[in-house]
Each structure stands twice: as C-alpha cells, then as structure tokens.
Design a protein that fits this description.
It is built from four helices and no strands. It is mainly α and 103 residues long.
C-alpha cells in the first residue's frame, strides 16, 4: 500500500473503521467486481460472506463457496435495503455492502 492509498482511504473512511486489504491491486476482487452466484468460489465470495456475517445476515460457515446459505443471506440483505431481490451479487450489492475499489 502506498502513501497516496492511505491518503485516499483517510478521506473516505471514518476514523476507527477496520480496513482489511488482501491480494492484488483491488484486494479480493482482483481488477473488477465479478458477478457472484451459486457455485462461484473465491476470495471475493469469502469477503462478501464475512461482511454479510458481520452485518447479521449470514449464519453459515464463511467458506468462499457461494451456495444456498449465501443466496438466503443476500436475499435478506437485498430486501432490507429495498433492492431488487435476486440470487446474485453484482456491483450494486458490493457497493451497498461497503466495498470500495481504488488503485
């Protein structure tokens, strides 16, 4: 992480917020947000499950494997946030979950 990255975070993240950065330029999301749906596996699924768990929507094991339990949790999250309810996680859900991409 470069100083300019720290400065960018400082401007948009409230003091005291825990920030986790893992892998690559864009963390667990690589270079873009991919559409997550049943059967998808990876660090991005893990990050979403972890965030849903911290927000109280996900009760399953944080495994990085998108299954029925992830569908159930994201549907609850979508309903609560008055979003279109569907069995997938796209850019709208990532942003509402608080994920921000930056270089």
């Amino acid at each position: 992480m470069y100083n300019k990255d720290v400065a960018a975070l400082y401007k948009i993240i409230p003091h005291g917020t825990r920030v986790t950065i893992t892998q690559g330029l864009y963390g667990p999301f690589g270079s873009y947000y991919r559409l997550l749906k049943s059967g998808t596996r990876g660090a991005d699924v893990y990050a979403v499950q972890k965030q849903l768990k911290e927000l109280g929507f996900y009760n399953g094991y944080v495994s990085g494997i998108y299954g029925r339990d992830t569908d159930y949790a994201i549907n609850k999250f979508q309903k609560k946030n008055k979003m279109r309810v569907h069995n997938a996680i796209g850019v709208t859900e990532f942003k509402k979950l608080g994920f921000i991409q930056f270089e």
